[in-house]
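Whiteboard transcription, Tuesday session. T.W. wrote the C-alpha cells on the left side:
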C-alpha cells in the first residue's frame, strides 16, 4: 500500500454539532419553585409550633394565676418558670427571687416575678 491508497481510505472527522444547535439551553425554574415551596412549608411549621407552645404556656400561666391560695400558687409558678426554658428552646435565666424561701417573698416581689414570667412569654 502506498501513501495515496492510505489517504483515500481515510474518512472525514465528524465534528459534533454546536451545543446551542443540538439542544437549546432552557432555564428550568421548577426545581427552584419546589425548593421554595419546601422551605416555605418548613418555616410555616416552625412558626406554627413556636406559637403553639406559647399558646399552651399562656393558658397554663393564666390557670396558675387564677389559683387563690398563694402558698399553693408559688410552687406552681416555680415549676412553670423552670419548664419555660425547655418549652421556649432557649435559656431563660430566672431571677434570684425564684431560689429564695417562699416565706421571705413579699407581695411586690411576687408581682414582679409574675410580670417577669409574663414578659418571657411575650418574647
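and on the right, the sequence the group agreed on:
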Amino acid at each position: 500500500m502506498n501513501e495515496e491508497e492510505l489517504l483515500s481510505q481515510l474518512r472525514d472527522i465528524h465534528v459534533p454539532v454546536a451545543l446551542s444547535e443540538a439542544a437549546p439551553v432552557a432555564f428550568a425554574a421548577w426545581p427552584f419553585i419546589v425548593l421554595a415551596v419546601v422551605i416555605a412549608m418548613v418555616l410555616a411549621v416552625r412558626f406554627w409550633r413556636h406559637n403553639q407552645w406559647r399558646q399552651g404556656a399562656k393558658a397554663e400561666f393564666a390557670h396558675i394565676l387564677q389559683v387563690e391560695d398563694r402558698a399553693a400558687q408559688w410552687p406552681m409558678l416555680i415549676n412553670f418558670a423552670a419548664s419555660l426554658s425547655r418549652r421556649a428552646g432557649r435559656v431563660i435565666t430566672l431571677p434570684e427571687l425564684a431560689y429564695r424561701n417562699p416565706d421571705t417573698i413579699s407581695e411586690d416581689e411576687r408581682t414582679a416575678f409574675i410580670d417577669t414570667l409574663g414578659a418571657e412569654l411575650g418574647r
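Someone added at the bottom: DSSP finds five helices and no strands in the chain.
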